[in-house]
Amino acid sequence: MHELYLILSWTLAAIVLLLLLLIVGSSIRNGITPMPTSRPVRRTVMREIGILADRSEIVEAGSGFGTLALNLSRRFPMCRVTGIENSLVPLLASRLLQWANRLPQSRLQFRRGDLFQYPYEEADLVVCYLHPAAMRRLTPVLKERAKDGSRIVSVFFALEDWEPESVEVCGDMNRTKVYVYRVNRHPLDVRV
User: Fold this and answer.
1) Can you give the pTM of this predicted structure?
2) Which of 42, 44, 65, 118 is 20 to 30 A from 8 in CA distance terms?
3) Does the domain made of 39-182 have the CATH classification 3.30.1360.70?
4) Which residues lie closer than 8 Å to 57 by C-beta, 6 or more apart?
């Protein structure tokens, strides 16, 4: 019995060490560790989004552990939410969270992928909570690919050279800002 306990203990320790190494490796590659979105920030994001049309496509770029995408799926049950994440451990945690909350893939899907390569052309709403370097890389991608009229909600960091429609300060201890943008491919609205 003692040998079985030792084998199980060492196996569990090895699994935990492997998961930690995977998180550290992806954090080094990404330049940041995944951070769950706090409750006050999630509430502010939901309030700033307001109402969405049924069947809207929502993409969370860099979905991390999936807490924000999960809340988006609950708040907008007639919409489809896709979380894009390149780090394996947070992605697996997201999928486990989705399974535990019994949300079908028709409503919520977590994909492993590069958020800079994702085709944002069909997204009605893009939500992101990324570090400044990633936001600088994502800005031209969204300018090129996001469809006209879609909205972008960015937590904490603004999009460079874009004028937000609104900026809301959360009630959390960091006084986190939530920026809301609208993609406008035709900045000159000429009427005849």
Assistant:
1) 0.80
2) 65
3) no
4) 79, 80, 82, 122, 123, 124, 125
